[in-house]
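Question: Send over one sample?
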Amino acid sequence: MKVAFKVIQLCCLVFPAFVLEGSAAIAFASERTVRTFSDFLAVVAKEGDTFSSLSQEYLNDPSWDWFIAECNETGSLKAGQTVIIPLRPDKRGGLTLRGYQTVPVLAYHNISPGKSDKMTVKQEMFEQQMALLKEKGYRVVSLDQFFDFLEFKGSIPPKSVVITFDDGWLSAYEIVLPILKKYGYPATLFIYTNIIGRNSKSVSWTQLLEMTAQGIAVQAHTMSHRNLAHPGKKESFKEYFENLEKELSGSREIIKKKLNLEAKYLAYPYGDTTSLVVELAKKLGYRGALTVKRGGNPFFVPNYRVNRSAIYGDFTLSHFERSLAIFQEQSLK
Protein backbone atom coordinates (compact mmCIF):
# COMPACT_ATOMS: atom_id res chain seq x y z
CA MET A 1 0.00 0.00 0.00
CA LYS A 2 1.35 3.46 -0.88
CA VAL A 3 2.89 5.56 1.90
CA ALA A 4 0.66 8.48 0.95
CA PHE A 5 -2.45 6.42 1.47
CA LYS A 6 -1.14 5.27 4.85
CA VAL A 7 -0.92 8.93 5.83
CA ILE A 8 -4.52 9.46 4.74
CA GLN A 9 -5.61 6.43 6.71
CA LEU A 10 -3.80 7.74 9.77
CA CYS A 11 -5.46 11.14 9.43
CA CYS A 12 -8.89 9.61 8.90
CA LEU A 13 -8.84 6.85 11.43
CA VAL A 14 -6.73 8.25 14.26
CA PHE A 15 -6.58 12.05 14.16
CA PRO A 16 -9.64 13.25 12.22
CA ALA A 17 -9.11 16.94 13.11
CA PHE A 18 -5.38 17.26 13.72
CA VAL A 19 -4.67 19.28 10.58
CA LEU A 20 -6.71 22.20 11.85
CA GLU A 21 -5.29 22.51 15.35
CA GLY A 22 -3.15 25.58 15.98
CA SER A 23 -3.79 27.14 12.59
CA ALA A 24 -4.64 30.83 12.72
CA ALA A 25 -6.01 30.60 9.19
CA ILE A 26 -8.85 28.29 10.22
CA ALA A 27 -12.22 29.73 11.22
CA PHE A 28 -15.75 28.38 11.07
CA ALA A 29 -16.98 31.08 8.73
CA SER A 30 -19.78 31.01 6.21
CA GLU A 31 -17.18 30.65 3.45
CA ARG A 32 -15.52 27.31 2.91
CA THR A 33 -12.44 26.66 5.05
CA VAL A 34 -9.94 24.40 3.31
CA ARG A 35 -6.41 23.21 4.03
CA THR A 36 -4.63 21.53 1.11
CA PHE A 37 -2.10 18.73 1.44
CA SER A 38 -0.42 16.62 -1.22
CA ASP A 39 -2.84 13.71 -0.99
CA PHE A 40 -5.89 15.03 0.85
CA LEU A 41 -7.86 18.11 1.82
CA ALA A 42 -9.13 19.12 5.22
CA VAL A 43 -12.36 21.09 4.90
CA VAL A 44 -14.87 22.49 7.35
CA ALA A 45 -18.44 21.46 6.57
CA LYS A 46 -21.08 24.13 6.01
CA GLU A 47 -24.80 23.96 6.63
CA GLY A 48 -26.43 21.72 4.04
CA ASP A 49 -23.28 19.81 3.11
CA THR A 50 -23.55 16.07 2.50
CA PHE A 51 -20.89 13.51 1.72
CA SER A 52 -22.30 13.34 -1.79
CA SER A 53 -22.11 17.12 -2.31
CA LEU A 54 -18.54 17.27 -0.98
CA SER A 55 -17.60 14.35 -3.22
CA GLN A 56 -19.05 16.20 -6.21
CA GLU A 57 -17.36 19.47 -5.23
CA TYR A 58 -13.86 18.11 -4.66
CA LEU A 59 -13.70 14.83 -6.58
CA ASN A 60 -16.14 15.66 -9.42
CA ASP A 61 -18.01 12.45 -8.69
CA PRO A 62 -20.80 12.15 -6.08
CA SER A 63 -20.50 8.36 -6.01
CA TRP A 64 -17.35 8.56 -3.83
CA ASP A 65 -19.50 9.75 -0.90
CA TRP A 66 -19.15 6.35 0.75
CA PHE A 67 -15.37 6.63 0.81
CA ILE A 68 -15.34 10.08 2.43
CA ALA A 69 -17.84 8.90 5.05
CA GLU A 70 -15.82 5.76 5.77
CA CYS A 71 -12.54 7.68 5.94
CA ASN A 72 -14.01 10.01 8.57
CA GLU A 73 -15.70 7.17 10.47
CA THR A 74 -19.07 8.89 10.59
CA GLY A 75 -22.40 8.60 8.87
CA SER A 76 -23.51 12.21 9.21
CA LEU A 77 -22.25 15.78 8.83
CA LYS A 78 -22.93 18.98 10.71
CA ALA A 79 -21.80 22.55 10.20
CA GLY A 80 -18.33 23.19 11.60
CA GLN A 81 -17.23 19.56 11.38
CA THR A 82 -13.74 18.88 10.05
CA VAL A 83 -13.81 16.48 7.08
CA ILE A 84 -10.84 14.74 5.43
CA ILE A 85 -11.22 14.32 1.66
CA PRO A 86 -8.65 12.02 0.01
CA LEU A 87 -7.66 13.40 -3.38
CA ARG A 88 -6.85 9.93 -4.69
CA PRO A 89 -9.68 7.75 -3.39
CA ASP A 90 -8.33 4.25 -3.19
CA LYS A 91 -9.07 1.22 -1.10
CA ARG A 92 -8.01 -1.59 -3.35
CA GLY A 93 -8.91 -5.08 -2.28
CA GLY A 94 -11.28 -3.92 0.45
CA LEU A 95 -8.71 -4.71 3.13
CA THR A 96 -8.97 -3.34 6.66
CA LEU A 97 -7.41 -4.25 9.99
CA ARG A 98 -10.58 -6.22 10.80
CA GLY A 99 -10.67 -8.36 7.67
CA TYR A 100 -11.57 -8.04 4.01
CA GLN A 101 -14.48 -7.11 1.79
CA THR A 102 -16.47 -9.76 -0.05
CA VAL A 103 -18.75 -8.98 -2.98
CA PRO A 104 -21.92 -11.03 -3.54
CA VAL A 105 -22.85 -11.70 -7.17
CA LEU A 106 -26.54 -12.55 -7.45
CA ALA A 107 -27.78 -14.91 -10.18
CA TYR A 108 -31.39 -14.83 -11.40
CA HIS A 109 -32.99 -16.77 -14.21
CA ASN A 110 -36.65 -16.01 -14.90
CA ILE A 111 -39.11 -13.53 -13.35
CA SER A 112 -42.87 -14.11 -13.50
CA PRO A 113 -45.77 -11.72 -12.81
CA GLY A 114 -47.87 -14.42 -11.18
CA LYS A 115 -46.15 -17.67 -10.24
CA SER A 116 -42.83 -18.97 -9.05
CA ASP A 117 -40.83 -22.19 -9.09
CA LYS A 118 -37.24 -22.95 -8.19
CA MET A 119 -35.77 -21.01 -11.12
CA THR A 120 -38.53 -18.38 -11.37
CA VAL A 121 -38.93 -15.49 -8.93
CA LYS A 122 -42.27 -13.71 -8.66
CA GLN A 123 -42.22 -10.10 -9.84
CA GLU A 124 -43.50 -8.85 -6.46
CA MET A 125 -40.68 -10.60 -4.60
CA PHE A 126 -38.05 -9.43 -7.08
CA GLU A 127 -39.11 -5.82 -6.58
CA GLN A 128 -39.05 -6.28 -2.81
CA GLN A 129 -35.50 -7.61 -3.09
CA MET A 130 -34.39 -4.62 -5.15
CA ALA A 131 -36.06 -2.27 -2.65
CA LEU A 132 -34.28 -4.02 0.23
CA LEU A 133 -30.91 -3.34 -1.40
CA LYS A 134 -31.75 0.36 -1.50
CA GLU A 135 -33.17 0.47 2.04
CA LYS A 136 -30.17 -1.34 3.55
CA GLY A 137 -27.61 0.86 1.82
CA TYR A 138 -26.18 -1.62 -0.68
CA ARG A 139 -24.59 -0.24 -3.84
CA VAL A 140 -25.14 -2.18 -7.05
CA VAL A 141 -22.00 -2.10 -9.19
CA SER A 142 -21.36 -3.24 -12.75
CA LEU A 143 -19.44 -6.36 -13.68
CA ASP A 144 -16.65 -4.16 -15.05
CA GLN A 145 -16.34 -2.37 -11.69
CA PHE A 146 -16.34 -5.72 -9.90
CA PHE A 147 -13.51 -7.12 -12.05
CA ASP A 148 -11.54 -3.89 -11.59
CA PHE A 149 -11.86 -4.58 -7.86
CA LEU A 150 -10.58 -8.14 -8.33
CA GLU A 151 -7.62 -6.91 -10.37
CA PHE A 152 -6.68 -4.09 -7.96
CA LYS A 153 -7.54 -1.48 -10.59
CA GLY A 154 -10.17 0.35 -8.58
CA SER A 155 -12.17 0.56 -5.39
CA ILE A 156 -15.86 -0.10 -4.88
CA PRO A 157 -18.19 0.73 -1.98
CA PRO A 158 -18.01 -1.58 1.05
CA LYS A 159 -21.60 -2.84 0.55
CA SER A 160 -21.28 -3.59 -3.16
CA VAL A 161 -23.49 -6.13 -4.93
CA VAL A 162 -23.51 -7.37 -8.54
CA ILE A 163 -26.78 -8.40 -10.24
CA THR A 164 -26.81 -10.93 -13.08
CA PHE A 165 -29.44 -12.84 -15.08
CA ASP A 166 -28.97 -16.01 -17.09
CA ASP A 167 -30.37 -17.39 -20.34
CA GLY A 168 -32.37 -14.66 -22.09
CA TRP A 169 -36.00 -14.98 -21.07
CA LEU A 170 -38.50 -12.33 -22.18
CA SER A 171 -39.05 -11.29 -18.57
CA ALA A 172 -35.61 -9.68 -18.63
CA TYR A 173 -37.04 -7.10 -21.02
CA GLU A 174 -40.66 -6.86 -19.86
CA ILE A 175 -40.23 -7.04 -16.07
CA VAL A 176 -36.60 -6.72 -15.05
CA LEU A 177 -35.57 -3.73 -17.16
CA PRO A 178 -38.27 -1.34 -15.82
CA ILE A 179 -37.54 -2.31 -12.19
CA LEU A 180 -33.79 -1.88 -12.60
CA LYS A 181 -34.34 1.51 -14.24
CA LYS A 182 -36.58 2.53 -11.33
CA TYR A 183 -33.77 1.92 -8.86
CA GLY A 184 -30.91 2.95 -11.12
CA TYR A 185 -29.18 -0.44 -10.89
CA PRO A 186 -26.77 -1.79 -13.50
CA ALA A 187 -27.00 -5.50 -14.31
CA THR A 188 -25.59 -8.13 -16.66
CA LEU A 189 -27.61 -10.52 -18.80
CA PHE A 190 -25.79 -13.71 -19.81
CA ILE A 191 -27.43 -15.10 -22.94
CA TYR A 192 -27.06 -18.39 -24.74
CA THR A 193 -27.42 -17.32 -28.31
CA ASN A 194 -29.48 -20.25 -29.63
CA ILE A 195 -32.50 -19.21 -27.53
CA ILE A 196 -32.63 -15.56 -28.61
CA GLY A 197 -35.76 -14.85 -30.65
CA ARG A 198 -36.57 -18.55 -30.80
CA ASN A 199 -40.07 -18.29 -29.31
CA SER A 200 -42.46 -15.98 -27.46
CA LYS A 201 -40.79 -16.73 -24.12
CA SER A 202 -37.35 -15.47 -25.09
CA VAL A 203 -36.04 -11.98 -25.67
CA SER A 204 -35.30 -10.83 -29.23
CA TRP A 205 -32.14 -9.24 -30.59
CA THR A 206 -34.06 -6.00 -31.11
CA GLN A 207 -35.08 -6.00 -27.46
CA LEU A 208 -31.50 -6.75 -26.43
CA LEU A 209 -30.32 -3.74 -28.41
CA GLU A 210 -32.81 -1.60 -26.51
CA MET A 211 -31.65 -3.05 -23.21
CA THR A 212 -27.98 -2.37 -23.91
CA ALA A 213 -28.86 1.22 -24.80
CA GLN A 214 -30.42 1.51 -21.33
CA GLY A 215 -27.44 0.24 -19.38
CA ILE A 216 -27.86 -3.55 -19.30
CA ALA A 217 -24.66 -5.39 -20.21
CA VAL A 218 -25.07 -8.48 -22.40
CA GLN A 219 -22.46 -11.22 -22.00
CA ALA A 220 -21.90 -14.83 -23.03
CA HIS A 221 -23.56 -18.00 -21.75
CA THR A 222 -22.38 -20.14 -24.71
CA MET A 223 -24.42 -20.97 -27.80
CA SER A 224 -26.42 -24.04 -26.80
CA HIS A 225 -26.22 -24.03 -22.98
CA ARG A 226 -24.52 -27.41 -22.95
CA ASN A 227 -22.54 -28.48 -19.91
CA LEU A 228 -18.97 -27.49 -20.73
CA ALA A 229 -17.38 -29.66 -18.06
CA HIS A 230 -18.29 -33.04 -19.56
CA PRO A 231 -17.96 -34.58 -23.05
CA GLY A 232 -21.09 -35.96 -24.65
CA LYS A 233 -21.52 -39.73 -24.63
CA LYS A 234 -20.51 -40.06 -28.27
CA GLU A 235 -17.91 -37.28 -28.42
CA SER A 236 -14.26 -38.10 -28.90
CA PHE A 237 -11.86 -35.83 -27.05
CA LYS A 238 -11.03 -34.09 -30.33
CA GLU A 239 -14.73 -33.46 -31.03
CA TYR A 240 -15.29 -32.33 -27.44
CA PHE A 241 -12.47 -29.79 -27.61
CA GLU A 242 -13.62 -28.47 -30.98
CA ASN A 243 -17.18 -28.13 -29.72
CA LEU A 244 -16.02 -26.33 -26.58
CA GLU A 245 -14.13 -23.84 -28.70
CA LYS A 246 -17.17 -23.33 -30.91
CA GLU A 247 -19.45 -22.74 -27.91
CA LEU A 248 -17.12 -20.13 -26.41
CA SER A 249 -15.95 -18.34 -29.54
CA GLY A 250 -19.23 -18.66 -31.47
CA SER A 251 -21.30 -16.97 -28.79
CA ARG A 252 -18.88 -14.02 -28.72
CA GLU A 253 -18.96 -13.73 -32.51
CA ILE A 254 -22.77 -13.72 -32.62
CA ILE A 255 -23.03 -11.10 -29.86
CA LYS A 256 -20.54 -8.95 -31.75
CA LYS A 257 -22.48 -9.33 -35.00
CA LYS A 258 -25.94 -8.75 -33.54
CA LEU A 259 -25.21 -6.15 -30.86
CA ASN A 260 -21.79 -4.78 -31.83
CA LEU A 261 -20.51 -5.62 -28.35
CA GLU A 262 -17.40 -7.40 -27.16
CA ALA A 263 -18.39 -10.19 -24.76
CA LYS A 264 -15.74 -10.17 -22.04
CA TYR A 265 -17.37 -12.40 -19.46
CA LEU A 266 -18.71 -15.95 -19.48
CA ALA A 267 -21.29 -17.58 -17.23
CA TYR A 268 -20.72 -21.34 -17.24
CA PRO A 269 -23.94 -23.24 -17.99
CA TYR A 270 -25.01 -25.02 -14.79
CA GLY A 271 -22.02 -23.34 -13.15
CA ASP A 272 -19.76 -26.23 -14.14
CA THR A 273 -16.20 -25.82 -15.34
CA THR A 274 -12.83 -27.55 -15.47
CA SER A 275 -9.22 -26.45 -15.83
CA LEU A 276 -9.48 -27.14 -19.56
CA VAL A 277 -12.53 -24.89 -19.93
CA VAL A 278 -10.84 -22.17 -17.88
CA GLU A 279 -7.69 -22.22 -20.00
CA LEU A 280 -9.74 -22.17 -23.20
CA ALA A 281 -11.74 -19.17 -21.96
CA LYS A 282 -8.47 -17.37 -21.21
CA LYS A 283 -7.09 -18.24 -24.63
CA LEU A 284 -10.20 -16.93 -26.38
CA GLY A 285 -9.98 -13.57 -24.63
CA TYR A 286 -12.52 -13.69 -21.83
CA ARG A 287 -11.61 -11.45 -18.91
CA GLY A 288 -13.38 -13.68 -16.40
CA ALA A 289 -16.02 -16.34 -15.87
CA LEU A 290 -18.65 -17.09 -13.27
CA THR A 291 -19.91 -20.25 -11.57
CA VAL A 292 -23.00 -20.76 -9.40
CA LYS A 293 -21.05 -21.67 -6.29
CA ARG A 294 -22.65 -19.79 -3.42
CA GLY A 295 -20.65 -17.23 -1.48
CA GLY A 296 -19.13 -13.79 -1.67
CA ASN A 297 -16.00 -12.85 -3.59
CA PRO A 298 -12.88 -11.42 -1.96
CA PHE A 299 -10.31 -9.70 -4.16
CA PHE A 300 -8.30 -12.93 -4.32
CA VAL A 301 -11.05 -15.09 -5.86
CA PRO A 302 -9.81 -16.49 -9.23
CA ASN A 303 -11.13 -14.46 -12.17
CA TYR A 304 -12.40 -17.60 -13.92
CA ARG A 305 -14.07 -19.17 -10.90
CA VAL A 306 -16.12 -16.28 -9.55
CA ASN A 307 -18.83 -17.26 -7.07
CA ARG A 308 -22.48 -16.48 -7.73
CA SER A 309 -25.41 -17.01 -5.40
CA ALA A 310 -28.54 -18.18 -7.22
CA ILE A 311 -31.75 -16.50 -6.05
CA TYR A 312 -34.54 -19.06 -6.12
CA GLY A 313 -38.29 -18.62 -6.38
CA ASP A 314 -39.00 -19.98 -2.89
CA PHE A 315 -36.66 -17.50 -1.16
CA THR A 316 -38.09 -15.24 1.52
CA LEU A 317 -36.55 -11.82 2.07
CA SER A 318 -34.56 -13.35 4.94
CA HIS A 319 -33.15 -16.02 2.58
CA PHE A 320 -32.31 -13.27 0.11
CA GLU A 321 -30.55 -11.13 2.70
CA ARG A 322 -28.42 -14.08 3.75
CA SER A 323 -26.98 -14.07 0.21
CA LEU A 324 -25.55 -10.59 0.75
CA ALA A 325 -22.46 -11.27 2.89
CA ILE A 326 -20.15 -8.31 2.32
CA PHE A 327 -17.35 -8.78 4.85
CA GLN A 328 -15.18 -11.53 6.24
CA GLU A 329 -14.03 -10.93 9.81
CA GLN A 330 -10.39 -11.90 10.05
CA SER A 331 -7.92 -9.86 12.04
CA LEU A 332 -5.06 -8.69 9.84
CA LYS A 333 -3.11 -7.11 12.71
